[in-house]
Amino acid sequence: MSRPASRAKVSVRAIAALAFAAVVVVALDQGVKALVVANLPYGTVVPVLGNALQLLYVRNPGAAFSFAVNMTWVFSIVSTAVVVAIIVFARRIRSMWWALVLGMLLGGALGNLLDRLFREPGFGRGHVVDFISTPWMMPAIYNIADSFICISMVIFVLLVILGVNLDGTRALSAKQQRRADGSAASTAASDADVSRASRPLVDDPRAPRDGRDSLGHDAT
Predict the structure, then answer these.
(1) To 5 degrees, how large is the angle CA 172–CA 12–CA 88?
(2) Per annotation, catalytic residue among 115, 146, 181, 218
(3) Crossing angle, helix 96-118 and helix 144-162, to 10 degrees?
């Protein structure tokens, strides 16, 4: 009876961690975007660390990193689907790592979705505020939500490679699985030997019974 209660407690903690990560990412993304819109000149490069890091305020009607600029509605629908899928999927999470990863992904998706829903030129067609430029790494302009989406996907891949399941357990490698199968077979064989050893011997029908031989004659 204590095991289901423990699993339920872990599930609540994981969902709380997911929600916390998502709220932090959305708040950070929207707060910084508000500062950018209020203080940065549109389309003007502001060097921060030379060419390594620049601020360049632009409005992106497309996907992350300014891709597919003519498909705003499509990405609004895709982002909504991702948000709904993560929320529905959250109840299956037991691992804190998975909770944080999906929380960052949810926050990133929500951050850009809010732009698409409520910024100009209209609902579902809003342009996402981008402002981070790293020319040495990529030519695209991006934002904090995009960054957290990428970080979450990298950790996602690492968790899959390491075999971390949603419930926090670790998947066995092929070598470990063979070892476990061999141990199980050995245990089963040992149990069978013990069972045979403890089984009572079958009486020999030729053995004397009650003082008589196998032909029924008095042995005396």
Answers:
(1) 80
(2) 146
(3) 150
Where do the H-state alpha helices sit in the chain? 2-39, 72-89, 96-118, 144-162, 174-198
Spatial distance between the Cα atoms of 84 and 107, rounded to a whole number of angstroms: 12
Cα separation, 22 vs 101, whole angstroms: 9
* Per-residue pLDDT tens over the stretch 23-48: 999 999 999 999 999 999 999 999 99
Is 146 annotated as catalytic? yes
How many Å from the N-terminal Cα to the C-terminal Cα in the chain? 65
Residue ranges in the chain modelled with pLDDT below 70: 1-10, 62-72, 172-220
130 as an active site residue: the answer is yes
Q: Exactly one of 115, 130, 191, 213 is catalytic; which is it?
A: 130
Strand order in the sheet with 141-142: 45-47, 54-60, 128-133, 141-142
31 C-beta neighbours (distance < 10 Å), count: 11
